[in-house]
Design a protein that fits this description.
The protein is mostly helical and 70 residues long. 63% of the residues lie in helices and 6% in strands. It has a domain of 40 residues. The longest helix is centred in the N-terminal third of the chain and has 20 residues. It is flat and about 50 Å long.
Length: 70
């Protein structure tokens, strides 16, 4: 890949990661790298499992219902 195209791709990837974090969706690739480095041999959630777990943690969903406050 040519240098300008590579730099543009890096900037775009950074913008996407930042936007996801702003709306509460952590980066799946970072999660996978962390699990493999810190917890080798343990299972890694699929993207769908990861997304649902992060949504539940952020918005308080439990068993398909909103937890609410306190």
């Amino acid at each position: 890949m040519r240098e300008p195209a590579r730099k543009l791709r890096l900037v775009c990837d950074g913008v996407v990661r930042t936007a996801r974090l702003m709306v509460g969706v952590p980066d799946y690739d970072t999660y996978v790298a962390h699990r493999r480095e810190t917890h080798p041999g343990e299972p890694v959630m699929s993207y769908q499992e990861f997304f649902r777990e992060r949504q539940a943690a952020r918005y308080g969903f439990s068993n398909g219902r909103f937890r609410g406050c306190c």
